[in-house]
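Input record (one chain):
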Amino acid sequence: MDHFLYKNKQLHAEDVDIRDIAETLGTPFYCYSAATLTRHYQLFTQALEPLPHLVCFAVKANSNIAVLKLLGDLGAGMDVVSAGEYLRARAAGVPGEKIVFSGVGKTVEEMRIALGGGIRQFNVESEPELEALSLVASEMGIEAPFALRVNPDIDARTHDKISTGRKEDKFGLPIERARDIYARAAQMPGLRIVGVDMHIGSQLTDLAPFEAAYTKLAELTRQLREDGHTIERLDLGGGLGIPYTRSNETPPLPSDYGAMVRRVLGDLGCEIEIEPGRLIAGNAGILVSSVIWRKSGGAREFLIIDAAMNDLLRPAMYDAHHDIIPVVEPAPGEPAVAVDIVGPVCESGDTFARQRAMPLLQSGDLVAFRSAGAYGAVMASEYNSRPLIPEVLVKNDQFAVIRRRPSYDEMLARDSLPAWMQPPAGEEPETGQAQVTEG
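The corresponding structure, as predicted from the sequence alone:
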């Protein structure tokens, strides 16, 4: 369920008419619903009761500070994969003891930042990382809480680019080596074992791979306790999928997932950590765009819109599907035509949909991409020198810009000329020439 519905034939985000936002900001823009974010977080935390647990939102899914603050104020922890994400979570008011630091390539500097600001745990993914963390924590005179991320060699049966739990994937340590690595870690200075971590992939629409992985995790936990290690927490990662189409996708509900977790892991007495991102934020956001032109290509009809692959990369990168709907609700029985929906970027890959049935839209009409709240704005770029687009948060009948669209001047000002290209003293650069900054 989300809170993007037609009211009086016009698409609304909660009680805000999407046309009002478009008239204020122009298009394209992202729009998030506070009510949907709240509801989806609460579904997860309720699903895990009565087990002790912490729901850590995967910041990589949507890193806007306003979104993070909304979830943090509800009680969510955060799962981060870079110092930048860590600092965003802290800027949103999330305390360090509720932040989990994941990722395969943590640098020494990132470790220092997180240890200095407070951290719940590091999810360690390699032996060199473990050694570096021991050294950094020892130099700082503190202990680093950590869990090893183990790779269970489970095929999540999801898209190849978002599968993370197979032997050939770059993530985690082989589960069969975990006992030896934990034994070694127990003797290393500056480290404190707190749990075990596992994550097998994203956009899973079947609970069977989760259950197979968690069964292995339960067995490993018992073995580690027999070896004398204190295992307080089990970090189960994220990955539960969402319905990107309204017709044939029926991913498991959080309640079904929670019941499975209780059945497989409930007798271990561990605090459960989960790291959902997509299921909390995905259907809580839409991307709104305007039709630029309708074009006949002979064998094809094209709808050229002002959003592009640099604004929403998923279709180009993953061949991902997003439902695309008109902002004005079509009348019953209104004719539809098959069109290719494309953006203005100079790439054939800048295609959102092929032969999609759409009403007869014209220049200036608005469309909305559903399920765009996760892995949308966070993956955007300024390819083709297109400025990043705004993000908007709606609550009831109010909306606020939570990231504004930069001007062309601001975008150009980030570039600088080397000293040998600077104009002679007293001469001004020509109009349109990149501005020079020192540094």
